[in-house]
Here is the input.
Amino acid sequence: MNALSKPQAGFDPYAAREQFPILKRDVNGKPLVYLDSAASAQKPEAVIEAVADVWRGSYANVHRGLHTLANEATAAFENARATIGRFIGAERSEEIVLTKGATDAINLVASSIGQTLEEGDEVILSQMEHHSNIVPWHFLRERKGVVIKWAPVTEDGRIDLEAYEALFSDRTRFVSLVHMSNVLGTLNPATQLAEIAHAHGVPIMFDGTQSAVHSHIDVAELGCDFFAFTGHKLYGPNGVGVLYAAGDWLNRLAPYQGGGEMIAEVSEDGVVYADAPHKFEAGTPAIAEVIGLGAAIEWLTAQDRVAIHAHELSLLDRMMAGLDEFDDVRVLGTAQEKGGIVSFVMENAHAHDLAQLMDKYGVAVRAGHHCTHPLMKRYGVTATVRASIALYNTAEDVDAFLEALKKARSFLI
Here is the structure.
């Protein structure tokens, strides 16, 4: 694993914590130790204020108004789109579709791609996918006879590349894979996965819900056709997400939803759709939330992200080393390329019981199947405890987590 190291000179997690109001509260008489950021990250004051400022002073519907508030809101909304595009290295802001979340973005692609698929056509997923990148493809299996093929996961938590490449056939039409697992923490070799898909003439999408916050993302370097991520795990608001589509993909795909905003003209006899990306943005969007996501990205990119990454990896190593002292704990996901997500099971102790007991000591972790039933089946478990690290976590948080786990264990075993 990664060598233990102190927080980097370019990033002070203790100063960062001061910018997150919720981290000042107590839970059950103990200081809050928030290790559930993979489910949803907390928000810095800069994001809270950005959203509040929209409501306070410049809220109006976007794109169609001619008055001052509408113009201000539209400018801020489109500036956020441009900020989002720069964050992931998109060539043009027109390649960015603003959605309700990563789930919505994946459904958009599956629905639109699905209109071109026929019975017997194949889609490749992996065993480590979140349900949001499984169920939309099952819709196509149920409704159109599309075949889902599964790339297996190795014992240490990697996609088996040889087995992955062997899945391709002349009926393979699409690949959709998670970039960073929300359970294993594995950062998959996206560039290599994309190169294999493209060598077979198949487009590929990555679910970047976890990787967008923990890694530097350049969609050109990844070589993907589509990239989806969400706002609320990126220190931004919930209810907003992003779909990146390379080149002319948005022009080639049919709209996902119908309504206002996504049209140029409607008559009794037909519809002329708006240009991309707006033809995929039906209805009034999450205006303040999109602006808030732009503020979150501006706040994050103002930090030393290289130092943040090193800090998070140092906490990961500290946590893994501490868990290694438990002879009855099994960690799922030990691949070398791994981010700050740790999922584990303990013999003779249910994950839900452990999480509830740890909450008594102010430690917030997630317990359950984490919307990854196929992965749970792969490892022969029904649930895990998951601790996930963010930039605002500290060595003291990790130590409090380990101590709470010891106390919970003493109650159960």
User: Anything to note?
Assistant: The radius of gyration is 22 Å. The longest strand covers residues 172-178. The CA atoms of residues 99 and 356 lie 34 Å apart. The chain is about 40% helix and 15% strand.
